[in-house]
Amino acid sequence: MLKKRICHISNYTIIDSYQWDVFDSSMTFRLKISIIDTNILLLKASGYAARVSQQEIWPKMKNIITTQMENQKFFLVHDYTDLKSASPWSRYDYTHWVIENADNFYGMYFFGASSLMKIMIQTGVLLSSKLDNSYIFPDYKAAILDISTKKLIAEEKQENIIFLKSKKDIPPEEMKKGKIIVSASGIKYIVRQQWEHRNNEYIVKTFFLGNNVFFRYFHGSFVEDDFADLGKSFEEIINDSIGPDEKFHFYVDFTHAQIMSLSFRKDASLWYEKMRGRFVSVGFFHLSPVNKMAIIIARNLVRYSGLKQKIFVLSLAVEAFEKIENIEDLDVQNNDKVLSKMSKKDLIRKVHRLNRDHEEVINDLYSKIGRISWDVNFDLEEIEVDTDGKYSDIYNAIRLVQQDVRDLLKKSNETNVNTKKSDSDSLEA
Description:
Elements: E1 2-6, E2 13-17, E3 21-23, E4 29-36, E5 40-49, H1 51-68, E6 74-86, H2 88-100, E7 105-111, H3 115-125, E8 134-137, H4 140-155, E9 161-163, H5 164-167, E10 180-182, E11 188-198, E12 202-209, E13 213-222, H6 226-241, E14 248-260, H7 262-274, E15 279-285, H8 289-300, H9 305-310, E16 311-313, H10 317-326, H11 330-341, H12 344-374, H13 392-428
Helix pairs in contact: 1-2, 3-13, 6-7, 12-13
């Protein structure tokens, strides 16, 4: 029996069935299958995938694809949140199945993968150019938002597209969830989500575009303690949309804004200073002469020069997209400025320190690679993997090689033992 539920992120219908939740005979591997919006196949894998797991479960999955997808192209999505690992042979079999059927996929998506699993995916992708449309995302939300973006762009209904090259501006009434904004340079931004906050005096609409762009539309009068609620609500939106640490672009439309009291502007200034480390760029447009002057004064009074450089007073929406696409991360620029101000002696000392750090990493890599070459019996867990640092991919690649070498040697030893036993039995006979 099929069960239906709604995806709270995309509003797509998700179809599940208890018959699509299968285990291998050893009960060490589980695959749960769901169909989303008729052409998204979600595979949730759990446990350890051995070759026998693939051989036992795959016929059932192929049958579901044949009966449910009706030979149409679809998005193939993998949830590896609970997948511990996979044997070399199971990865080999699955990769070749994907290559053989790549023409049936709009794209292959992976999310929730551990750092080691990511390396497994990346090495598999290298086997064929047919796997170029493979994408790794941190979680389901990021993956489904990317897919929904591609689906909307593929539909390209003219009433849903705003071309800024010819239109030049976006009236507040035209900004809606599901719209596609094509900037003057041709970059497409999907309006992914929208929120609305209101009281008796004002309405504030917030829109999430692309990967890290937020637009807010102010309507009405804003006084006294209003910004406390607006600031808090926006922080919740940001954290739900991109996470608590990611940077973003923030632009505010004041077409229908009337009054901003001194108290409101003061609270807003303090909030912008608090959030300064997360802004890539900030802009205000469609301002009345009074509001424009108020914002210019507030910007000039900002205590942090880095924040002041990120704030722009604009005329039209099209200018906001020009800033988004052309501005560099000022924090990176400021780091370059710090280096440029260092003395020659300090720079030499910094280079020597970096060289020592690199030598330590290289020696560590030699040690691990050398042990893979000839120390067959050492414990895999003895490899201390840096899962968060800048060398994590290298360490995980070494760990993957060791894991595969050990697995293949184990299979080879088992084959040799069976061969010797067979030869011994033949001689006794």
